[in-house]
TrEMBL record:
<keyword id="KW-0378">Hydrolase</keyword>
<dbReference type="Pfam" id="PF01981">
    <property type="entry name" value="PTH2"/>
</dbReference>
<dbReference type="GO" id="GO:0004045">
    <property type="term" value="F:peptidyl-tRNA hydrolase activity"/>
</dbReference>
<dbReference type="InterPro" id="IPR002833">
    <property type="entry name" value="PTH2"/>
</dbReference>
<protein>
    <recommendedName>
        <fullName>peptidyl-tRNA hydrolase</fullName>
        <ecNumber>3.1.1.29</ecNumber>
    </recommendedName>
</protein>
<dbReference type="InterPro" id="IPR023476">
    <property type="entry name" value="Pep_tRNA_hydro_II_dom_sf"/>
</dbReference>
Amino acid sequence: MQIALNLPKSTPTSRIEILESAARAVVAVCLDERAGQDGFFAEALGQWYGHRIRKVARRARNKAWDDVQGLAGVTINNQARAFIPSAVKDVPAPIAKLQIGHTDLPHEELGAPLANAPVIYVDNSLEMTAGKAAAQVGHGSMLYAASLSAQEAWEWKQQDFILSVREVPREVFNKALEVPEAVVIRDAGYTEVAPDSATVIALPSPLGS
């Protein structure tokens, strides 16, 4: 699955907002109404689910960002658009020409995550770029949705997949690992991190709530 991140040069972009939008865009594609209907949208997802699931985040801005809005997918907050999956050779040209590198953004100091909403914790000791982290939180939101009942997933969809992302120190991340409901994402290690690294954890609510 390809993810385009809108990173304009002229306007400072919030790293956490980009990550939250990417996570929401991915799960919105997976639970889009078209995913449950006959047609190319459902077929693309079905073929992807049957193979190794990967996500690639790419940098877009200005006309390049506008050009990909007409391709099948979902955009959140004009910050991230996730597209229906395809084989690498079939990635549409407007997406393929977007750069994969240079997707980093500065870290931010943030307050507590939203109460009574899922939280995706990112291990900031891994020092992932924003692009890498966007792909990982996309995994997290997608697999968190898969852990829900059909009713719970429908209710989350009615809330537009509200969630928080927080990048936290390893000691906080380890506490999240201990939560029984934790959905843990381990990376294959193709880029930036060692194989089998736990990169993000999705929880149904903030730690300590």
